[in-house]
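Module 6 notes. Inverse folding takes a fixed backbone as the condition and produces residue identities as the prediction. Think of it as a translation problem where the source language is geometry and the target language is the twenty amino acids. Below is one complete input and output pair. Work through it position by position during the lab.
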């Protein structure tokens, strides 16, 4: 159980680092450069994903090629599939929340990010992307 808690905390740290890059880049694009907010969310999400994957691969999930089911390319492919799903949920969810609640996109984005991080990304990362080989 402690291993799972430690893994969850490390992966959330990784997600947080990716999120800081993601959200900051989104704000830069939208607020300073005037990019449409849904495009800025997608671009920020891509940057954040690269940061998140790198930290997960090299630290959070302690990947060693000989101990894990997939190599770097396989992990990157699966991560990319999850990225597309998570970004789609974030973009659609943020847009719907923004339209129907009339709340600023910055706040609705935070809500969607929290939901996707816990209920989508972590579960799939730990059980689909960074999977240990069976002994």
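Target side of the pair, the amino acids:
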């Amino acid at each position: 159980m402690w291993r799972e808690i430690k893994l969850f905390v490390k992966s959330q740290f990784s997600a947080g680092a990716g999120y800081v890059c993601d959200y900051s880049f989104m704000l830069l694009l939208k607020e300073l450069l005037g990019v449409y907010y849904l495009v800025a969310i997608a671009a920020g999400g891509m940057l954040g994903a690269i940061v998140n994957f790198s930290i997960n691969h090299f630290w959070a999930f302690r990947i060693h090629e000989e101990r894990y089911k997939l190599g770097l390319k396989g992990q990157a492919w699966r991560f990319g599939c999850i990225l597309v799903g998570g970004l789609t949920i974030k973009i659609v969810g943020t847009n719907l929340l923004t339209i129907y609640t009339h709340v600023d996109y910055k706040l609705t984005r935070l809500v969607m990010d929290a939901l996707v991080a816990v209920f989508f990304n972590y579960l799939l990362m730990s059980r689909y992307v960074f999977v240990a080989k069976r002994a």
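Reference fact for the lab report: The chain is about 80% helix and 0% strand.
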